[in-house]
Amino acid sequence: MPNSTDNQGSAPPGLSSRPLPSSFDDNADFYNENGFQKVSRRLREEPLIPIGCIATVAAFTGAYRAMRRGDHEQVQRMFRARVAAQAFTVVAMVAGSWYYAADRQKQKELWKLKEQQDAEEKRQKWIRELEVRDAEDKALQERLEKRRKKKAERDSAAGAPDGVAAQAQAAYADAKEKVSSPAGDVAPEDPNKSNITGVRERLPTWLGGSKGADGSSRDKN
Amino acid sequence: MTNLIRSNFQDHPFHLVSPSPWPLNTSVCLLNLTTTGALSMHNFNNIHYLYYIALIGLVSAMFLWFRDIISEGTFLGDHTLAVQRGLNLGIILFIVSEALFFLAIFWAFFHSALTPTVELGAQWPPIGIEPVNPFELPLLNTVILLSSGATITYAHHALIKGEREGALYGSIATILLAIIFTGFQGVEYSVSSFTISDGAFGTCFFFSTGFHGIHVIIGTIFLAVALWRIFAYHLTDNHHVGFEGGILYWHFVDVVWLFLYISVYYWGS
Fold first, then answer.
1. Which CDD domains does the annotation name (chain B)?
2. Interchain CB distance below 8 Å, B135 and A218
3. In the CATH hierarchy, which fold is given to the domain comprising B79-264?
4. Does A39 touch chain B (CB under 8 A)?
5. Domain-located, residue A27
6. CA distance to partner chain A, nearest, from residue B266 (Å)
């Protein structure tokens, strides 16, 4: 909600060129206002509404007091005043919303823009994460392939071993290699990014726990 | 003058009512209504049948009690000026208790709306809630209710000037506008994108507007009874406590709508 009309004149022409567009960047009170401040800001923005409300209630109590006295003419006058005061309040409200329409529309667009920005940022982060994972996976495959080739060369150089025992020994060594390699051997490309197991541990949170991620991003709003 | 004869004349302005079963009857019905209502809200088997019985009992007791009051006031002439003042006091106590009831509802609303918790996204209306646009159907409803205030004021004016037709037509117009208002509220409820179970917003919205709707229905019945009493020549240009009470109640309901419209529909969306 815009604070007052003075924001209308100083609106920047290119909203998207600003890092985080908001009319209230220099107005910390807007983000931190408490309940009482919120109410008083509303009342200051549209002072005719509370005035109309007070007049309406006053006319209503006046009608009751006249009724207690048995003064039907005064009751009638107060009823008319009540309807008039309420009509005034409603008209003031409609006029106020019309007066602030541009301000409020702008504010709504700013909110939307910021929300979009947050979403885009989150998407980019996720894409980066996937790319890192992909690179890690490729590196792993490459190393395995290299090892397999090296072993095949070694074996061919030493002369193919024959017999069932030798084949079993080879298969065992192969399996052992596969088991031990992923965790320890692969050096991460980026020190900030975790290795494969780390990513897998986080995976459920990334996919299922989007709530927490949403909450934290929205808190900043 | 013997005591027996004197007992037929009340040489004081007050109305000492004859023994009546309705206060006790109503008390029993009210206790049953709250007990069975609370139990049925906690899913006790078949208790809602007792709830409906208690409700029917309460409505019948009210009907018969009000019938007695009408016969005492209109046909027995017991409602002297002092009694009328007492009835007026009863009306204002009723309206004050209603006002405090709505104060509690507004308190609940402002408690949630002014400092929205982090679960709501720290904003009001909460994240994911699409509130009703206040300048569509609610504005029309506001105008309808305000017009009904004007028509009932016209009916009152006509009555105190002794114009029977104006009083009748004004009341009929008011009741029609009230029914249209209630119908539009029903439309708004049926097309709203949220329900009463949608967090603090849905709860406060339907809690406040729903109870206001119930009060509109009660006020409509109040004015319909008054309309029938005008039609049946019960009310005169200077003795119409029931009608004036009904009008005051109607204005009260309208004022509550103004506050609802400003805080829940306009500032709260």
1. Cyt_c_Oxidase_III
2. no
3. Four Helix Bundle (Hemerythrin (Met), subunit A) (1.20.120)
4. yes
5. no
6. 8
